[in-house]
Specification:
The chain is α/β, with parallel strands linked by helices. It is built from eleven helices and 14 strands. Strands 3-2-1-6-7-8-14-11 form an eight-stranded mixed beta sheet. Helix 4 links the parallel strand 6 and strand 7. The relative contact order is 0.16. The structure holds alpha-D-ribofuranose and calcium ion (CA).
């Protein structure tokens, strides 16, 4: 069982990642850290608290950074344009929603900010911990800047982010990296073992409507919730970024948890030297150095993912939620 800290900008796929980490027998989830990203920090923290409360997940939640480390220091930083979507009945539709249909909760975030939690927890840890980052990498990068010695307690950093042949936030950038490119570069240079689960893997390990039917059949509140979140993603994907396979969606974040459970869910995992574009048209791009002979390798990068295996892992883990709910 691996000890895991999961850093989330909850979010539909983050929510599925939290549930998957909580119910996987291979994962000992020690804490959740929130970060802004899909939604503002108040909302991602509240969504995280709603998820843990709704499914009796007994782990502390640490509120994290509300902004990137550096990139929006310039006052006229352009605001994100949000395209308003509606479904076939004219109802509003979005990839990530405030409250996610979950009830309000009395659960509160811990006092300590997330970056300080990393420093405090990892300094004292007597066992190595795997850090899974599925939002902008701000919290952990800040912790590394406060005390770089924490890397001694980190077994692996698993990042949902980046893309080689795929992008989403900008023509050549994925959202988690584009949101805080400086933080991503700090994590890359940390000296930790860093494994990237980029869009190349998550788009090829898509989840289908039929997989959601299987999840719903499990019948636990957690499995039905995950099916709902993924169905919502399928609707939005179909309207905005249809995948080759109809009625399917990339469900990015839980693929990182699936990789902990069964590393063979990532295919074509290559040890590479990579850096992150800082500014200009390549801002936030994960640039894999093609000169195999020059640079020291600094991360592992998955160029593909196994869709059938991923779907089976999700179903198998959600079956645990029946026993425990
Ligand atoms: O680009 C996909 C990533 O950005 C996912 O982690 C999603 O939740 C958003 O954070
Ligand atoms: Ca996320």
């Amino acid at each position: 069982m691996r000890k895991v800290i999961l850093d989330v900008d909850t979010g539909s796929d983050d929510a599925v990642a939290i549930v998957t980490a909580a119910f996987a027998k291979e994962v000992d989830l020690v804490a959740l850290c929130s970060v802004w990203g899909n939604l503002p920090i108040d909302v991602t923290t509240d969504n995280t608290l709603r998820v843990v409360s709704a499914f009796d997940i007994n782990v502390p939640v640490y509120r994290g950074c509300a902004r990137p480390l550096v990139k929006d220091l310039v006052a006229d930083y352009p605001p994100k344009k949000i395209r308003k979507l509606v479904d076939e009945n004219g109802r509003p539709l979005s990839m990530h929603t405030p409250n996610m249909g979950l009830p309000e909760t009395d659960r509160k975030a811990e006092d300590l900010p997330a970056a300080m939690f990393y420093v405090d927890y990892l300094r004292k840890a007597d066992e190595k911990v795997t850090v899974v980052l599925v939002g902008p990498l701000t919290n952990f990068a800040l912790a590394l800047r406060i005390d770089e010695r924490i890397i001694d307690k980190v077994e692996e950093v698993i990042v949902m982010g980046g893309g080689h042949h795929f992008a989403n936030a900008r023509p050549c950038a994925e959202a988690n990296i584009w949101n805080d490119p400086e933080a991503a570069q700090i994590v890359l240079e940390s000296g930790c073992k860093v494994t990237f689960v980029p869009l190349d893997a998550t788009h090829q390990a898509y989840i289908t409507w039929d997989d959601c039917v299987r999840m719903r059949k499990i019948g636990s509140p957690a499995s039905v919730f995950c099916a709902e979140q993924i169905e919502q993603r399928i609707r939005v994907h179909s309207l905005t970024q249809p995948l080759e396979v109809p009625d399917s969606a990339a469900v990015h974040d839980p693929l990182c948890i699936a990789y902990i459970i069964d590393p063979s869910v990532l295919n074509d995992l290559r040890h590479v030297h990579m850096y992150v574009g800082q500014g200009g048209p390549g801002e936030g791009q994960t640039i894999v150095d093609g000169r195999y002979y020059t640079q020291k390798k600094n991360c592992w990068f998955a160029f593909n993912g196994d869709r059938d295996r991923f779907a089976d892992i999700l179903i198998r883990v959600l079956e645990n939620s029946v026993v425990q709910s």
